[in-house]
Design brief:
alpha+beta, Alpha-Beta Plaits, four-stranded antiparallel beta sheet, two-stranded antiparallel ribbon, 6 strands, elongated
């Protein structure tokens, strides 16, 4: 099993969700996060005063899927989230050693 964490631009969430559904992904979690990478934030003007916005709003999508589905899910995220501009985001993939469905006690891929 693989855990995929994707950090994307907020306005791309619906497109990524639809692409993942088309790729057969059953469930995912979404978290609003803030951060910066190469974008380094930006300056804004508020009531005549300039201030620096260091952390930019992003969306973090998390999903745990079988090894066989991982590549298709990654390709779907990249295709839907890409704008070819700085700040498109990143995808992190890690191994999951165990998953347990609380309601039924199912384990492994059966719990997904």
């Amino acid at each position: 099993m693989k855990k995929i964490e994707a950090i994307i631009k907020p306005f791309k969430l619906d497109e990524v969700k639809e692409a993942l559904q088309e790729a057969g992904v059953q469930g995912l979690s979404v978290v609003e996060v803030k951060g910066f990478g190469r974008q380094k934030g930006h300056t804004e003007l508020y009531r005549g005063a300039e201030y620096v916005v260091d952390f930019l709003p992003k969306i973090k999508i998390e999903l745990v899927i079988s090894d066989a589905e991982a590549e298709g899910a990654i390709e779907a995220i990249v295709a839907a989230a890409k704008t070819d501009k700085i700040g498109d985001g990143k995808i992190f993939v890690s191994d999951v050693s165990e998953a347990i469905r609380i309601r039924t006690g199912e384990t492994g891929e059966d719990a997904l």
